[in-house]
Amino acid sequence: MDWTSYDAALFDLDGVITPTADVHMRAWSDMFNGYLLSRGVIEPYTDADYFAYVDGKPRYDGVRSFLASRHIALPEGEPTDGPTEETVHGLGNRKNDAFNAVLERDGVQAYPGSVRLLDELAARGTKVAVVSSSQNAPAVLTAAGLIDRFPVIVDGRVAKAKGLPGKPAPDTFLDAAAQLGVEPERAVVLEDAHSGVQAGRAGAFGLVVGVDRGAGAQSLLANGADVVVSDLAELLA
């Protein structure tokens, strides 16, 4: 790939830089299937549900989207709801507790190909940012030893504080580009989720790279990716 046409790279985190998407998937599965079982629902939550309703979205949006697919309506509740509360926020917080427990126990290592690309971009002077729907981005980057690589992090907490809608809206990516002082057409979006590549396309970014970690190459292309890779090392100059 010729990086001379671009001044910045805007990375999603889970599934693009770190394999924490796997941790998220296990945490979502444990939470949703436990909840469905408590309601006597026979049809289980599956990985297909993750990619269709949850992947890349802010946590509470993911809860709301999946429950709607099962025709389940819950009160919204409040962000301070405990994990035992049967509300959208309560289920979201229950999932977050499960994720943090796995992260603390097992830690996380970045994909080697992603680190190689970060090294090359640093040598080129290309600006970088993390744009993640997760509210755990700083903790994940710290655990992976990469927190110092990213001067700009726009995660779920930043989006909430600024009132930015989450992916598939492009606002979080546009905010990161603005913080870096780069026009969207001079920035590359790197995403593994349908909602993420949709956001990149909606923001009219210079290039939208889909990273296929399970969503499917054709599906990522259909949702807005310009090109799809299976590992970021494929983007080395």
UniProtKB/TrEMBL annotation:
It comes from the Bacteria. SUPFAM superfamilies: HAD-like. The keyword Cell cycle does not apply. Its cofactor is Mg(2+). Keywords: Carbohydrate metabolism, Isomerase, Magnesium, Metal-binding, Phosphoprotein. It catalyses: beta-D-glucose 1-phosphate = beta-D-glucose 6-phosphate. Its EC number is 5.4.2.6. Belongs to the HAD-like hydrolase superfamily. CbbY/CbbZ/Gph/YieH family. PANTHER family: 6-PHOSPHOGLUCONATE PHOSPHATASE (PTHR46193), HEXITOL PHOSPHATASE B (PTHR46193:SF18). This is Beta-phosphoglucomutase.
